[in-house]
Amino acid sequence: MTAMQPPNLVLVPETPERRLSDGRTTILHVVGARPNFVKMAPVIAALERRKDVIRQVIVHTGQHYDSRMSDEVLADLDFPAVDVFLGVGSGTHGVQTAKVLSEFEQVLIQVEPDVVVVAGDVNSTLACALAASKLGIAIVHLESGLRSFDWSMPEEVNRVLTDRLADVLLAHSPEAVDNLEAEGISRGRVYNVGNTMIDSLRRCEKRARDLKTWESVGMEEHGYVLVTLHRPSNVDDPTRLQQIVGGLVGLSDHAPVVFPVHPRTRARLVEDGGLARLEAAGVACIEPLAYLDFLSLQAGAGAIVTDSGGVQEEASALGVACYTFRPNTERPITLTHGTNMLLGEDPAEIAEVRLSPHPPTPCVIPLWDGRAGERVAEVLIANYVLSAAPVAVSV
Ligand code: UD1
Question: Which residues are 226's β-sheet partners?
C-alpha cells in the first residue's frame, strides 16, 4: 500500500459559537471514505435546519485523500466545510484503524460532543466508534444492520463491531432490522429510516443526467457496461486479478466497457500488466470519477458489473441492471426489490454479462424515497434533544 505522510491534526480555529455552552446538543459527524460522504450529506443538511437545538461538527479522517476520491466528491455533494481533518491516509488495516482511533480520541477530548454519528462500514467507522465508546460518548450508526455473513470481508468485521458499540442504530431496510434483532440488540434502539444514499442520488440525479458523461468517454447512452472493482478479495491476489482481466476482455468482445479504476485496483493492474491487456482490448480504463460524473455513467449504462456495496443500491434506484461480482451481498433488498443479481465469484461469468435490452426502470424500495436524511434528523432530535419540538416527518 502507498505510504502516506499524515499531516498533523488540523483543527479549524475555534469559533465563539463552538466555545459557547449555549445548551444546544453537539453532534459530531465522522466521514472518512468516499461512500461516507454520500450517506452523510443528507443528514447534515437536514440537521442544519435545526440550528436552534443542534450544533454540528464534521470530522474527516482522511482515509480517502485523493482529490477524485474525496475533494471532488465532497464538492459535488455541496458538502459543508469540514471542521477537523485528520489526514490519516492509507496503511494496513491495523495501522489505519489505529491511527484514526488515537487521533480521533484527541478530537473527542477537545470538542466534547454529546453524540458521535458514524456511517457505513469502512475502517474509519469502526475506529471512531471505538474511540467514542471508550470515552462514554453516545454513538449513532447510520446504515446499521447490514450483514454479508462473510467474516472474511473487512467491512463485515467493521459492521458487526460498530453495531455492538452503537447506542442508536439506523437501518435502511427491514432485513437490517431483523439482523440486529437476531443478534440480541434491543428493538427500541433500532430505527428503519430508509437510505440516505438515495437522498443524495435523487437530489443530484438531474444534474448528473444532464452531464451525459458517457459522451465524454466516447460511449452511447445505454450502450456500454460500467465496471467497478476494488474489493481486496477480487484485486489483491494477482492470479485472481489476471482471471478477472480475462473476464473483462471477454466482456469487451460483446459490449463497450467503461472501467473507472480505483487506486487500489490500478496499482495491482499496473504491477502485473493487466492494465495494458485491458487497454489493448479496448476497455476504457479511466480515473476514478467525482460523484456527479459517476452517477451520470451509472444512469447511462446498459448494465453494471461491480463489487461495491453502494453501487448495488444506486443501480437499483436508477433501474439499471446490476451484476454483483461477489458470492453474497449484505444488501438483499436490492435482489428482491431492485435490479441487482449476484454473479458469483467465477471471473468467466463476467464475460457472459450483456447489455440490457430494456430501458432502465427505476425501482421503488420502501423508505428509499429521498427523505431518509429528515427521518435521521428526527430520530437524533428525539433521542438527544429532549426539549426540542418534534419535526415534521415521522419514522
Ligand atoms: C474503502 C473501504 C471499502 C469501501 C471503499 C470505497 C475499508 C476497509 N474499506 O476501501 O469498504 O467500499 O473504501 O472506495 O475501509 N488509495 C489512494 N487514494 C485514496 C484512497 C486510497 O490511492 O484516496 C489507495 C491506497 O493505495 C490504499 C488503497 O487505495 O492503500 C486502499 O484504500 P483503503 O482506504 O484502505 O480502502 P479502499 O479499498 O478504498
Answer: 258, 304
